[in-house]
């Protein structure tokens, strides 16, 4: 376990609570057809689903953050900020465009990505733990 695993767990908890509710009167049914429900399956399927949601900022925002309950809208900004800093660090393959702030991430057509080397961004980010953690702390303390 690393510090990044703890930050990632925080992101998952924020997403889960903002989707399904923090208070009992806000509870949404786990039976609703939501992508995040896949996180509540067996360990292998949940890991695959999370990986699919985390690897792409557009998928994360469309399938996860945009499904938050409306009265938890402040958590949406928190979740997107955590996600970008955890999974889109400029030194990682998952952030091939050098994203350093909350700037827009350009989208590639599938034919543009075929020739790019296949690298696991989760492995790559382990090389940048200190920078990523510093970035996350700065984000939480409004330093960026």
Brief characterization of the structure:
This protein is an all-alpha fold. The chain has 7 helices and no strands.
Describe this structure in words.
- With about 140 residues, this protein is an all-alpha fold.
- It has one domain.
- About 50% of the residues lie in helices and about 0% in strands.
- It has helices at about 5-20, 45-55, 55-65, 75-85, 110-115, 120-125, 130-140.
- Helix 1 (about 5-20) packs antiparallel against helix 4 and helix 4 runs antiparallel to helix 7.
- It is globular.
- The two termini are about 25 Å apart.
The helical percent reads 40-55%
Q: Tell how many strands the DSSP assignment holds.
A: 0
The major pleated sheet works out as: none
**Number of domains as seen in the coordinates:** 1
How much is the radius of gyration in Å?
Answer: 15 Å
Total of DSSP H or I helical runs spanning 4+ residues: 7
Going by helix content, strand content and strand pairing, the class is mainly alpha
């Amino acid at each position: 376990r690393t510090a990044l695993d703890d930050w990632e767990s925080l992101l998952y908890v924020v997403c889960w609570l903002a989707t399904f509710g923090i208070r009992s009167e806000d509870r949404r049914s786990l039976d609703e057809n939501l992508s995040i429900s896949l996180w509540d399956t067996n360990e292998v399927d949940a890991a695959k689903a999370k990986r699919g949601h985390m690897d792409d900022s557009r998928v994360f925002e469309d399938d996860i953050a945009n499904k938050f309950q409306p009265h938890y809208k402040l958590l949406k900004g928190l979740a997107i900020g955590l996600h970008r800093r955890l999974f889109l660090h400029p030194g990682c393959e998952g952030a091939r465009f050098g994203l350093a702030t909350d700037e827009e991430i350009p989208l590639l057509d599938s034919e543009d990505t075929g020739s790019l080397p296949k690298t696991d961004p989760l492995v790559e980010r382990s090389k940048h733990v200190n920078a990523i953690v510093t970035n996350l702390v700065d984000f939480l303390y409004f330093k960026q």
